[in-house]
């Protein structure tokens, strides 16, 4: 978290971002005041008194009121979350003031430490937090009769268990497509694999035939019956 | 057999829907499960007439009517589900031809019966496609028919042109189509498009009598007699464009070759030998059946296991036999068109068995069970995505090849999920006899039969013209009725209709 604060403070031009300690109450308060004084300027100067008195006991109340006035969504969160939002807000304002200047900024692509591994198995690349994935699991769960659980991966494991042990439940007519389509795709992929295997088998047989085959006929042996 | 008036018998039969009849318990003694048969109006009449005739006083001898045979099979120990009669059902030895029955492997009393497989073990149909069009073949079909006739020996007592010694035969019995593949008679893709990949792994040639091997050795690569044939056929109608496309049948007029053959004298001898053994086993294990022809043995008895191993060897024999004829067919076409079989795109579409018993997994009453499925005159028809069908047909379902009778059309169907649940993934196998062989000989004249074929523009080569009336279309049920019933019931789906332009026959 503190690293993120450091980056954001540096971006905003804070005089001492390196040594900022968000755990320290005094430093925290002074950063909030610095942000309002220098960047956000939501209050008139005289209205900033409550925030300016960083040693006072009622600073927290003033800070709370300040956040309500900014309509911060993090107002009910912890101190770090609150600071994080205010920092981002300040950056947003800074950017809005100088759109022209920042617009052309380019981020240099960082070199990746790890080699870029592209998995050939599409299942490895599933995004479990994807809402579409969650919705899909939700729908399959209702068909199979798996109860609710906050983690879709656990529900998926439960579904797999049921499908392995019990005969496959008959999907309701309206939902049949959800089961049918992926099943059809899997079957087609399987058939393709099987074809490749069979072709290799045939090639192996033909290779052996080049050694063993010697088909002969002898018409003298032939005899038509009655 | 219980003797009742025809009207009394009918009380045990219930028409469940326009295509399905139920045979209730009590129709024959000791039925463990119910029976069922699938018929349309025309076939229904044939079935019930057969029963009515058998109910007339003084009718003894000959085979029991098909309905009675289905019910007798329902009384065999260990049977699960239902004893199923397919639309082409007609009386046979013990089991009706067109009867399928499954026995629970986990039940120690369950049986295996050679009568439930048939004497021509692994009789089946193979379909080859070409990239030729009817107009390429019509002008030279006489030469082509002759060329096929010269390459593939036919008839009773015919001998094959592929040189084999006793050791080759032993290997072929054990390896099935892998032997043909090793020796270079077939392509790797042929094995891929064959039921069981052309090899039953439990085959054990040491369980086969010397006599069977002696009969079998010279017959490899021959078509045989009876209802067996090789036909040059034309795609006449396509009902399911997607499935047909997956089989490489893209357009009306495309030329195919159908080979219908089995394990010749070899399979017959294996079945005969087993029946003798089983009669002893029945006495020892006190197995009671309603019909002496239903000789059987417990699956896990020595006799049962020996039969299954010998049957598997006979099945392998039949696959090698059809593979050899595939090779000879390709040679005949290559010579005639002066092109390599590769360039003629002469791939095997599929190869089905319609006389065999196999261990399969099925869902019975919601539980997965391992069953010994007897299919006699019944073709396996597995649905899309079944693990035992080739990858190319995973989306369409297994191709089911239904050979018609000489001079009538043939069909390609595909397996369905409904067939999997209703009939253990089984469907019909062909037209099914309407007249017995003897009756056909009495009622029909062979010259009329040959003339009729000629008037239809079908070239024909036969080894024994005087037996041709046994196989005349009039001796059989209408294959279109049979196939339409299977389609209507939903146990398989119509895909392609083929019509013959040249036939070679024993």
Automatic annotation (TrEMBL), chain A:
Q: Write down the InterPro entries for this protein, in alphabetical order.
A: RTRAF (IPR019265)
Any Pfam family:
RLL
Superkingdom: Eukaryota
- What name does UniProt use for this protein? RNA transcription, translation and transport factor protein
Protein species of origin: Diatraea saccharalis (sugarcane borer)
Automatic annotation (TrEMBL), chain B:
Q: What is this protein called?
A: RNA-splicing ligase RtcB homolog
Q: What is its EC number?
A: 6.5.1.8
Q: Record-annotated residues binding GMP? A: 227-231, 354-355, 403-406, 410, 429-432, 505
From which source organism is this entry?
Diatraea saccharalis (sugarcane borer)
Q: Which GO terms describe its cellular component?
A: nucleus; tRNA-splicing ligase complex
Binding positions for Mn(2+) 1 per the UniProt entry: 120, 123, 228
InterPro entries tied to this protein: RtcB (IPR001233), RtcB-like_sf (IPR036025), RtcB_euk (IPR027513)
Q: What does this protein do?
A: Catalytic subunit of the tRNA-splicing ligase complex that acts by directly joining spliced tRNA halves to mature-sized tRNAs by incorporating the precursor-derived splice junction phosphate into the mature tRNA as a canonical 3',5'-phosphodiester. May act as an RNA ligase with broad substrate specificity, and may function toward other RNAs.
């Amino acid at each position: 978290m503190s690293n993120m604060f450091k980056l954001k403070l540096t971006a905003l031009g804070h005089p001492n971002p390196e040594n900022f300690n968000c755990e320290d109450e005094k430093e925290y308060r002074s950063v909030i005041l610095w942000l309002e004084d220098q960047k956000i300027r939501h209050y008139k100067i005289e209205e900033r008194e409550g925030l300016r008195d960083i040693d006072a006991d009622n600073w927290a109340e003033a800070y709370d009121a300040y956040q309500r006035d900014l309509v911060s969504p993090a107002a009910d969160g912890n101190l770090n979350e609150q600071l994080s939002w205010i920092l981002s807000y300040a950056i947003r304002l800074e950017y809005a003031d100088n759109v022209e200047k920042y617009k052309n900024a380019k981020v240099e692509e960082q070199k990746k430490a790890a080699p870029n591994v592209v998995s050939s198995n599409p299942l490895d690349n599933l995004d479990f937090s994807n809402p579409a994935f969650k919705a899909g699991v939700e729908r399959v769960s209702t068909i199979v009769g798996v109860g609710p659980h906050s983690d879709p991966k656990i529900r998926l494991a439960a579904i797999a268990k049921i499908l392995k042990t019990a005969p496959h439940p008959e999907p309701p007519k309206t939902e049949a497509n959800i089961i049918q389509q992926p099943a059809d795709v899997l079957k087609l992929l399987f058939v393709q694999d099987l074809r490749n295997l069979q072709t290799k088998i045939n090639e192996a047989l033909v290779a052996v035939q080049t050694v063993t085959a010697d088909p002969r006929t002898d018409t003298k042996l032939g005899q038509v019956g009655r | 057999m219980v003797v009742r008036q025809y009207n009394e018998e009918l009380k045990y039969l219930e028409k469940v829907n326009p295509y399905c009849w139920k045979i209730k318990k009590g129709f024959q003694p000791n039925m463990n499960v119910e029976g069922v048969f699938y018929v349309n109006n025309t076939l229904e009449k044939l079935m019930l007439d057969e029963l009515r005739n058998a109910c007339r006083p003084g009718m003894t001898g000959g085979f029991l009517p098909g309905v009675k045979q289905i019910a007798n099979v329902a009384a065999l120990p260990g049977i699960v589900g239902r004893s199923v009669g397919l639309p082409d059902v007609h009386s046979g030895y013990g089991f009706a031809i067109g009867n399928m029955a499954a026995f629970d492997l986990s039940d120690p009393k369950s049986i295996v019966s050679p009568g439930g497989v048939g004497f021509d073990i692994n009789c089946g149909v193979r379909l080859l496609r070409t990239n030729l069009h009817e107009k390429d073949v019509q002008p030279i079909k006489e030469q082509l028919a002759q060329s096929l006739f010269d390459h593939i020996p036919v008839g009773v007592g015919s001998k094959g042109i592929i040189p084999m010694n006793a050791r080759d035969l032993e290997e072929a019995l054990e390896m099935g189509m892998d032997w043909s593949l090793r020796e270079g008679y077939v392509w790797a893709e042929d094995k891929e498009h064959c039921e069981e990949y052309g090899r039953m792994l439990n085959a054990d040639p040491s369980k086969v009598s010397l006599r069977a091997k002696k009969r079998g050795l010279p017959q490899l690569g021959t078509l045989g007699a009876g209802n067996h044939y090789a036909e040059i056929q034309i795609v006449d109608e396509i009902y399911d464009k997607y499935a047909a496309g997956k089989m490489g049948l893209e357009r009306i007029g495309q030329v195919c070759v159908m080979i219908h053959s089995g394990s010749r004298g070899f399979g017959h001898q294996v079945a005969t030998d087993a029946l003798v053994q089983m009669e002893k086993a029945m006495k020892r294990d006190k197995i009671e059946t309603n019909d002496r022809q239903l000789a059987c043995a417990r699956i896990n008895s020595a006799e049962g296991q020996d039969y299954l191993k010998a049957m598997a060897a006979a099945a392998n024999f039949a696959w090698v036999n059809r593979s050899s004829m595939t090779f000879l067919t390709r040679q005949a076409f290559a010579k005639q068109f002066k092109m390599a079989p590769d360039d003629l795109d002469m791939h095997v579409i599929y190869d089905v068995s319609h006389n065999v018993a196999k261990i399969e997994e099925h869902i019975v009453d919601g539980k997965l069970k391992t069953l010994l499925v007897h299919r006699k005159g019944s073709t396996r028809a597995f649905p899309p995505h079944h693990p035992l069908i080739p990858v190319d047909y995973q989306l369409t379902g297994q191709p089911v090849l239904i050979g018609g009778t000489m001079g009538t059309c043939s069909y390609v169907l595909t397996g369905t999920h409904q067939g999997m649940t209703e009939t253990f993934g089984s469907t019909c196998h062909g037209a099914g006899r309407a007249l017995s062989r003897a009756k056909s000989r009495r009622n029909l004249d062979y010259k009329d039969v040959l003339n009729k074929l000629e008037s239809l523009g079908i070239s024909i080569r036969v080894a024994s013209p005087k037996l041709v009336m046994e196989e005349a279309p009039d001796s059989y049920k209408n294959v279109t009725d049979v196939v339409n019933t299977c389609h209507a019931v939903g146990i398989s789906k119509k895909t392609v209709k083929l019509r013959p332009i040249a036939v070679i026959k024993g």
